[in-house]
Amino acid sequence: MSESTHVSSLGMGDGLHHQVLASFPLCDITEEDLTQNPQFCKLLATLAQHVDQTGLTVPLKTELEKAEQKLRSQRRHWLRSESLHKGLQEMIQDHCIRKHHVTVPPDQNLFYETLEKCLLVAQCIRLLDPSSTTNQDQPSVLGLSPQHMMDLMPSEKDVQRMKQGLPEELEKHLRKSCFSLLSYYQPEWENESERLKTSKLSHLAAQLDKEKKRAESLKETCRENTVLLQRQTQLYLSELIKCIQLLQSLILDHRLRIQTDLDGKKLEYLEGKCELVLQKIKTEMVEIQLDMYTVDSIAAHRKIRERLESDLKACQVEKHSVELKLASFEILGKEFEALAEEYCRLRQKIEMNNWALKEFTRCSDK
Questions:
Q1: Do residues 146 and 125 make contact, with C-beta atoms less than 8 angstroms apart?
Q2: For residues 332, 333, 337 and 340, what is the CA-based torsion angle, rounded to 10 degrees?
Q3: Quick count: other Cβ atoms within 10 Å of Cβ 38?
Q4: Within a 10 A sphere around the Cβ of 98, how many other Cβ atoms?
Q5: pTM score, whole prediction
Q6: pLDDT, tens digit, for every residue of 84-122?
Q7: Dist CA 184 CA 179 (whole Å)
Q8: Contact in structure between 70 and 35 (CB atoms under 8 Å)
Q9: Residue 183 CB burial class (10 angstroms; 0-12, 13-18, ≥19)
């Protein structure tokens, strides 16, 4: 049984491939990979029952959710304290700016000075107080202790007065900050009445949470579309490569099939061109001959040729007779060869003496 038949025997077929791809969206695998590796596809399908889309097991996912819930709780507690601290600091800064522009009542100045001193002392005490992870025996900063900082606190009376007026002032500041946030979120609400702003402000958290969930949903959809686009891109590129390979094979087959006809046509063309060139060369040669040789020169050349041919025949006859004589002389052997050489030497000597005698006679006549 083949592997594809084995996958079909599971009763899932293509549905198994889609289930695996949906269970592991972060994996860079395609349906073709699962088809070619059915055992691996079966392993992923079994594994999907024990892990989520991020690859975490069910127990680990539960522990992670508990840890995240605890972290969110601690984060809310920290944000509550940090927001309160930042709000108090903003109140002090606003007061410092306001007192440079308008006259502030003395009791309000005392309120903010007491608040600022209390914040500074609390901050110094937090810095001087070692945490649970710090060695308790380490020396303190500049020999200071939290008790030294407590001595710098304002009077108890001023502190109590500040604490009594703090909730109201803090509420005013937070209300102002919330109205600023509301105006930033919806600028057209800035000119609304305070009562209407307060009503809309009570629904602002729900609206922001709704938009946050919508943004997260859009982000998740965008991520899914990105994964889908990547898979479609891979599939498109794979199909495109197959089409290119098929096109290359078709082009190669077509080229090989018509190459013989192209070569035959090219050979015929070259043969015809060569024949044309040869005919042109012959034509040029005939034109040159017609320009060089007139009727009289051709007749003279014909007579010269006849005379040369007759002289050639006479020379050939003479050559033949000389060859016969030489052949008869060769019969006499080496002794005749020595006589022939001596004869040639004497003939040369006689010729030299005759030439010398002629020269001497010519000089004597002068």
A1: yes
A2: 0
A3: 20
A4: 13
A5: 0.42
A6: 888 888 888 888 888 888 877 888 888 888 888 888 888
A7: 9
A8: no
A9: middle
